[in-house]
Amino acid sequence: MKIGKIPEAVLKRSVLNQIHSCRDEVLTGASLGEDCAAVAVAPDEMLVMSTDPITGTVQDIGELAVQITMNDLASAGAEPIGIMLTVLLPENVSEQKLRHIIGQAEAACKAVHVQIMGGHTEVTRAVNQPLLSVVGVGKTKKGRMVSTAGARPGMDIVVTKWVGIEGTAIIAKEKEAELRTHFPEPFIQRAKAFDQYLSVLPEAAVAVKVGVGAMHDVTEGGIFGALWEMAEASGVGLEIDLKKIPIRQETIEICEFYGINPYELISSGCMLMAADDGNAIVQELEKQGIHAVAAGKAVAGNDRILYTAQERRFLEPPKADELYKVV
């Protein structure tokens, strides 16, 4: 199989179709497109959990691991509590590198008032670069969890900040020397600084307050993958104006340099939402200094259409992330 997320058909056939054991306490379990599970712990409260590995980069890996997990919890409308952190290291990694990784993770946790509750640290021949796997734990009231599967026909589809910002920042850091042969230094520094936008906690809080039907953090597979996953989980079609999807010029130019598709590039920091009144969410986000646009609609049926003034084409199932073609 190719590097990246496994194909949807394989996920359904060889993973999800084999999971049959159930417990009454589990309110939301393994499902296509869902990033979080939920467990009832009290009559009016439940724990929300998420898990993610960081495999596409080694720079700032400790910070990224926490931010991505916090984004998953925020996308579910949950208040983050803590993380369990598994750190797998190759034999050639120094203790100083380990200290640096954990220091990054702790600083990221402190910034959002969550705790590293435990985990596992190991040196192993099974990896050739540091690999982090994070389990995030949050909480919310029953009936308040937001699902990827909550989009309904007629809802507006909102995209926050810009697509491809995580991938742009990773490439700018990992390939800085190569990019200097083509781009001026200020351009590269702006691209590297995109990691300041990776948290979606602020926009998730705004959306929950205003009213939102579904949220999905745009990660591997980029905005095209996230749109497909939300539509598939919700059982709806889509009509999305490709020209309205927000993207930074730095992302466009770096993707052109490497011949990759920015709409299929890992995009943590960009949130996909479905809401009855997307314009109300956009207006409130803009008041908070968070760029957002209503890029289209959820529709009845299964057709997922991307259109411009010149053409219409069908959205395809998620592919391997474009980042793996570069780093």
Number of helices: 10
In spatial order, strands of the major sheet run 8-10-7-11-9-12-13
User: In which range does the helix fraction lie?
Assistant: 25-40%
Quaternary structure classification: single chain
- Give the strand content: 25-35%
Query: What number is the mean pLDDT?
Result: 92
Largest sheet: 7 strands, mixed
What is the CA-CA span between the terminal residues? Answer: 18 Å
* Structural class by SSE content: alpha+beta
Q: What is the rounded Rg?
A: 19 Å
Question: Regions with pLDDT < 50 over 5+ consecutive residues?
Answer: none
Rough shape? Answer: globular
Strand-and-helix sequence, N→C?
Answer: HEEEHEHEEEHHHHEHEHEHEEE
DSSP, total strands: 13
Can you give a write-up of this model?
The protein has ten helices and 13 strands. By secondary structure, the protein is of the alpha+beta class. Strands 8-10-7-11-9-12-13 form a seven-stranded mixed β-sheet, sandwiched between helices. Strands 1-2-3-6-4-5 form a six-stranded mixed β-sheet, with helices on one face. β1 (26-28) and β2 (36-42) form a beta hairpin.
